[in-house]
Every structure is written in C-alpha cells, then in structure tokens.
C-alpha cells in the first residue's frame, strides 16, 4: 500500500513539473536566438536589413576608420527592438550611431517558441570602413 501511494505521488509530481509553461507566463521569458524554434526575421530578409543600415548609417569622419560594431538587443514579441547595448565599436560615436539607426528599423517578424511569439536575444554586427 505504501509503495502504491508513493508511486502515485511520484507520477502526479512528475506530471505537475513536466507541463509546458502557460502562455500567460511566457511574456517575460527571454529565449536565446540559438534556442528559439522559429527565428526572428527582418521584413525582406537580411539583405534588406543591411541595405537599410547602409542607407541610414552615417560613418564618423575619421581617416582610415575600420572595424566592427556589435549591438546586443532583444527582438520583442511585437517585433520591435529593445534593450540595445553596444558590446563593441570602433569609437568616434559609432556605437551610438548604430543604435540610432536600429531604433528606426521597421518591426521584425518575432521569434516563436512552442507556437507563441517570444522575446528573443539577438546581436547585430555592422562592419564600418572609411577611407577619408
């Protein structure tokens, strides 16, 4: 009898903890880009994304400036970018300029996990080269 009760308790406990998180509690979860089931996507694809960056990014007026800018951000469930932080830049205000341009982007198609849109961590890499 004791073994039957213990087995029943174990099965009930396992079922309670193995259930998926309800949608209403998924709102604040942040899922890494590599783990999200459906990746976020910029309208028109990455070629369109980098075209937008190229048209709007104002390169600092420095001689022989070259390098990369990396911006960490979150693609929200509504497709907007938030929490933009400069991880790496080439100086001369390039990180701030990258954030300014990213703030102007149209909405992305958000990432999805378990069939629901989710907040997805993401990073953007922009290569800068100036030969002035």
UniProtKB/TrEMBL annotation:
InterPro entries: TonB_C. The keyword Signal applies. It comes from the Bacteria. Residues 1-18 form the signal peptide. The keyword Signal applies. SUPFAM superfamilies: TolA/TonB C-terminal domain (SSF74653). Residues 64-126 form the TonB C-terminal domain. Keywords: Signal. This is Energy transducer TonB. The lineage of its organism: Bacteria, Pseudomonadati, Bacteroidota, Flavobacteriia, Flavobacteriales.
């Amino acid at each position: 009898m004791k073994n039957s009760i213990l087995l029943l308790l174990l099965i009930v406990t396992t079922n309670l903890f193995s259930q998926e998180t309800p949608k209403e509690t998924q709102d604040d979860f942040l899922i890494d880009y590599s783990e999200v089931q459906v990746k976020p996507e910029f309208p028109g694809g990455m070629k369109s994304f980098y075209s937008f960056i190229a048209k709007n990014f104002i390169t600092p007026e420095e001689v022989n400036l070259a390098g990369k800018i990396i911006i960490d951000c979150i693609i929200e469930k509504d497709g907007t970018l938030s929490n933009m932080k400069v991880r790496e830049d080439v100086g001369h205000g390039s990180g701030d300029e990258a954030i300014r341009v990213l703030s102007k982007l149209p909405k992305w198609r958000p990432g999805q996990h378990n069939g629901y849109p989710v907040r997805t961590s993401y990073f953007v890499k922009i290569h800068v080269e100036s030969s002035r």
